[in-house]
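Hello again, I could really use a second opinion on something today. I've been staring at a protein lately and its backbone has me curious. You're getting the sequence in one-letter code plus the fold written as tokens. I'd be grateful if you could look everything over and explain what you see. No rush at all, and the record is pasted right below:
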Amino acid sequence: MAERSTAAVDVADNSGDEPLTAQADQATADGVANNRERDTDSDEAQGNPTSEESGKASPPELHSGHKLARRYRLEECVTRLDGFSSWRAVDEKLRRAVGVHLLPADHARARSVLAAARSSALLGDPRFVQVLDAVEDDDLVYVVHEWLPDATELTALLASGPLEVYDAYQMVSQVASAMAAAHREGLAHLRLSPNAVLRTSTGQWRIRGLAVNAALRGISSDTPQRTDTEAIGALLYAALTQRWPYESDAHGLAGLPKDIGLIPPDQVRAGVHRGLSELAMRALANDGATASRHEAPCTTPEELVKAIGEMPRIRPPE
């Protein structure tokens, strides 16, 4: 007998997160979609999955055309990794594209994935890609989420150069505010990378991966708010410089030169907005290891939101 979530299956905009206080370290991402949804573990610099947790379970042998619950038709496998798979699919009942994460019911992370998805489905914040269904059905566990065909990953946007100042400001403002709201409900992301942040055709920024993606990979953090705050700082740094603020290349971006440490964005590239450069450093320096020029480090998304609010407002170009 299938065990269903309490999430409204038919209403894509009414889902989100309830506190997963006991599992906040693992509740880090629910899947979402973009022009082409990808999970790029090789590019991720925010944390590494613990392979021993995946157990001996292997991905279910499924194929294009397979139907789940006589409703969700699998179309294209976009990820097959560490005992689970992710698909672009079609909800035949509502005639819309959706994304689906699948894993065996006996997978070591199956329960935490279900818990993360069900918690994520209660937040109801449209800045996050929404979980639509979370089901255990016989030997399968699957999570259904929104698919956003009109959205573009930050990774793709940065392939053509840094963002304009106003766009970078809007991105960090919206992402920080959304993550502050999630943390108030006890949820972290922990895989907040350029692949997880998407800009829609209307210019709004949305976050994919809250709670479910990290649960799929068994990623945790002893300091989830710091982890997510530093990740937002890295996003802003990349948006301003088209560089990744660590020595290793990631997400299609070149890293910083070795042995020179973290240097401010306005020293990496001429013309970078001074206020945004300092904001990125305050977020990246949230453990106090690297002091920004003037202000104290931001250690939580809430502190980052406050710091953004204290900046002079950046207006759109005329």
